[in-house]
Amino acid sequence: MEGADILCDSLFRWLENRKECAGKLLELAQELEDVHRGSNIAQVVGAATTVLSISGALTATVLTGGLATPLLVAATVGTVAGTAASVTSPFVEADMSSSTFNKAIELIKEDEKVGENIQKLLRDLKDRCGEAQLGAHADELDCEITSQLMCALARRSNTPVHLDFLRAFNKATFFRHMTPGGVQAFPALRAVGFFRVMTRGLKVSARVMMKNIGLIGTKAVAKAGSRALGVIGLGISLYDLIVTSEELVKGNRVTEASKFLRDSAREILDGQRKLKEQLDAMNEIIPKLFQMKNLIKDLGGYSLSMTENGQKIMDYIMGTCTDNRVVSWLQGLTHQIEFVNLLQFCQEGLTTHEDLTNPSGGHVDIVFVAHGRIVDQFMPAGGLVPTPNITDTVIYSPWNCRIDGNVAFAIAQDFIQVTDREFYNTNNDVYCEPNPLPNHWNSMRGSRHDIPGILLSPVTPEDTAWKCFQQYWMNRGMEIDNRVIIPYFAPQVNVFGEIPLFILIFVASFLLMLSNKTATVHLAACLGREGTPARRVEWRTQYAYTSDGTLMSVNLDDRNMNTTLFRALRSMFDRNRR
């Protein structure tokens, strides 16, 4: 059995033990109250002496790992049959030492044992994750431990699931990640490092759960009226509770002692319940993921209204998405319907590729082809690299620049080179290379700056390229091995409108997450400003820009042409030429 499976079993064993311990604390509180009601102050003080002798033996037992058990028995027998004044007290007559208290001692010893074992198992699991170099960042380590624990929970419920699938899901959905350029992928997580999953309204935090597990088995002295630990139900030693209550009894504060035991029992049960809810919710995630895959698979084509399956998908997306831009865009019903259709569209484009149907994972390059333009609203470049499933988004032309069919085809077929770029002004056919012009393509992963918003429009039946793309879409054997080419058009009905590039990338990343795949996105689209205000300072800060009317082209030489695709791209982009 793997370490995560043993840890999982120990956690559930500890949860049950703590529940039983809390029950015994309540019984002790009740018996203490019964004794107090039937005795005077002297009798209670005498009873405290009795309990104190038991706790002294308990201390030795806990600290010596059970070697002092005979001492504990002797102390118990001595107090019952001994010569102390407490021998006739109602405390002894209540038979607390021989029944409830002894059972509490057994549970406490078991709690200490299981708690220490959980700490050891957690350390071992962290060490193994670190050896696999998955713990270089705290988020990565938490993500890996959570993924392995979720996998163990799935096995426990006889729902086998691949570990890599859970890793991809956790990285994409739950954990905060920074791009190498320092741009946070999910702005909604800027203030907190928690992940959130909506499972029947329950919000689960992996960090809180890992913190809770980390408190199991730790010891902290409890003081009456004070809770040094935020989660007493997980972090406090049960033995400390007994000692504190005894101190209160010894000081003639019996009522406070019983209240302390009752309050502690309630907090223990509350902490135990919260951790169990978190574990149960994690276990519920897996069938929900399988359900989501089936819902997308069974969408049944495009629709101009919201279908039942589409609504379930949207409920899930709106409950789990942590990208404020995506959530804001999805507020209207029209955009939600469009989003569901985009899922159907991208799924058709992705699932036909062999690398994406292989369950063992893998990486692929996705080329989005569309009409495009830029606007004067800016966003972080890292917003186009939203999850670990999207490793980078590459843009090929400078800002405020159009491309021709040669460029689009070279991007699609993966033979475009920076040294082949040529820039012409379509107004006067004058060569007009931007200055300065970077000697690399515009990578969003490596950029620390804001970029202009990019809007994409579909090819419609009114475009001459539409029939070419329809033919291309029906004959999917024309992709090269490591590239999936997805032209943005509606194969059946005109259900798409102008959308932000980040929405299309989010759709792709969601599907990749469900398929346990990663991808690099390439954009083949014009980026002219189309009448929006020029922002030359910002454009130059992030890569480069061209003057109005500039076209980027490349020389294709005598390369072998995919005639159907080339004809479609020429008909789509060469209208930019004079």
SSE topology:
Blueprint: H1 3-37, H2 41-63, H3 69-81, H4 90-93, H5 100-131, H6 138-156, H7 163-173, E1 198-199, E2 202-203, H8 206-215, H9 232-235, H10 238-250, H11 254-297, H12 308-320, H13 324-329, H14 333-351, H15 354-357, E3 363-369, E4 371-380, E5 390-395, E6 402-403, H16 405-413, E7 422-425, E8 430-431, E9 442-443, E10 450-457, H17 465-474, E11 483-487, E12 499-500, H18 501-515, E13 518-524, H19 536-541, E14 550-553, H20 563-573
Parallel strand pairs: 3-11, 3-13, 5-13, 6-14
Antiparallel strand pairs: 1-2, 4-10, 5-9, 7-8, 7-14, 10-12
Helix pairs in contact: 1-5, 1-6, 1-11, 2-3, 2-10, 6-7, 7-18, 10-11, 14-18, 16-20, 17-20
- Measured by DSSP, the beta-strand proportion falls in 5-15%
Roughly what is the average pLDDT, rounded to an integer? Answer: 74
Report the span from N to C terminus. Answer: 70 Å
Number of strands: 14
Detailed description of the structure:
With 578 residues, the chain is α/β, with parallel strands linked by helices. Helix content is 52%, strand content 11%. The strands form four sheets. Strands 9-5-13-3-11 form a five-stranded mixed β-sheet, sandwiched between helices. Strands 6-14-7-8 form a four-stranded mixed β-sheet. The longest helix is centred in the middle third of the chain and has 44 residues, at 254-297. A hairpin with a 4-residue loop joins strand 7 and strand 8. Helix 1 (3-37) packs across helix 6 (138-156), helix 6 packs across helix 7 (163-173) and helix 10 (238-250) packs antiparallel against helix 11 (254-297).
